[in-house]
Amino acid sequence: MTPWNLLALAPLPEDALRGLMAPLGDPVRVPASRDRAALLAALPEAEIVVGDWTAELALDAAAVAAAPRLAFVQQPSVGVDGHDLAALTAAGVPLANTAGVSATAVAEWCVAAALALVRRLAEADAAVRAGGWPQQSLQPGELSGRRVGIVGFGPIGAACARLFRAFGCEVSYWTRTLRDEPGHLDLETLVSGSDVLVVVIALADETRGLLDARRMKPGALLVNAARGGVVDQEALAGALREGHLGGAALDVFETEPLPAGDPLRELPGVLLSPHVAGVTAGSTGRLLESVLANLAAALDGRPVTNVLNSVSPAVRRRP
Length: 319
Description:
Blueprint: E1 6-8, H1 14-20, E2 28-29, H2 36-42, E3 48-50, H3 61-65, E4 72-74, H4 85-90, E5 95-96, H5 103-118, H6 121-129, E6 147-151, H7 155-166, E7 170-174, H8 187-193, E8 196-199, E9 221-224, H9 233-241, E10 247-250, E11 270-272, H10 281-300
Parallel strand pairs: 1-2, 1-3, 3-4, 4-5, 6-7, 6-8, 8-9, 9-10, 10-11
């Protein structure tokens, strides 16, 4: 059988990418450089694309049009930012992600971040390092008994619910797709009534700018491990500056890395993280297994899993 033409866009050295995908047996190419011109130049021969988790090299409508032989896109992440799902669907190209591989890691980060805010761990650490001993003045709280609202209830949201309930929290959630799980509230009620609001919903046109921190309960805590674009970042900075919120833990931002001079860098009560909530040895291993299993299925003519657009999971080679 003629080998498939695989194009890998992940930001790894070429030798590393070829080594990771060596078990597939088919040759792997990479763009000549990490820019749009090189991407467009490489796409006409590409039949299967392994995407770029940074979204730097994404398949927008023009890129899809430049790939007439494209039969399948495997994104090596849960998020598919930058890819034009409508264009891929119109072209009959299934796009799959790695749903669920980072659910445990992200949920654990959300709980850890909420605990760090409630117990004021960062402030305690900074004070002791500076020679202080704020044993009486710190006044940390407890997570147990708090009302936790989860925005988004896929595998990550469900894992968050289990962990927060184990800490004695009252957990509710909102999602665009109803689940067979008690605790669903409308979004406005969830946002305005939660002591801790955990954001783990995918970024899409309908979720961009979804949450305004000024509508949250006074003194509440925000934990965002979704995408920076889901939360109005300017409104969040304002709510923190004015003391409306009790604090925030952020793993994601509208612009990444977080630019120098961004007000979030200077505001107290804010825990900043470099988009690593889902990055653990375990989740990386599961991601690699998921990607290789789906690519092997595509090459063998078996249906792929975790297809996000309304295209058949049976990958068909184009003439």
